[in-house]
Write the structure tokens for this entry.
Amino acid sequence: MLVSASYFVGMIIGAKALYDLRHSHLDLQALFSLRHYLEGGFWGGLLAYLVLALPLCMLLTKRRRSACDLVALTIPIPWALAKVGCLLNGCCYGRPSSLPWAITFPQGPGPAPAGVPLHPTQVYEIITMVLLLLVFRKLDRERWRGTMLLWFLAIYGLARAATDVFRGDTDRYIYLGPITLTQAASLAGATLSIVLLVLWARRNPAAEKTVGSGPDQG
């Protein structure tokens, strides 16, 4: 229930507030209007969700590792669906590309330039979510309990930093030298997560044992 509420608030209300703030027209009163959510766009929902859910999981539950795993497991499918919406709407679009898998958007209300072959950055993120689902399925065993969020941050962080190289909607990005703030944060989170996973693996080197197994009896 806690995770579900955090997801709703972060991915919808938080994403709308961050979108408004990013475009310099944040109106707190408007966040209470249903019509406001049908106009404009959303941005930063994943960040808002994590910032809200993780502290609550740490403070309000004793099963913190399981709660963090649940937070990570709730992200890939809804995030992939959100990126399908981005693809249909033409937001989060990529740079011009001559690659055979480049996509072209028609003239419409979306922000993507019409008639220009672009990197399908939305598809890149969908593929990342599919990869994460496969990793989560493979790691669904006792040895890796409590590390799903670290795996998510490691894989998504590296993939997001790479995907942003091909993003075309960078007019409002904040740059730190040659990279964006988003890339810097993604790489920092991925690096820290990889370090923690290595330490975890060294502390838990033994292979998992089958539940209920014991010494052979004659």
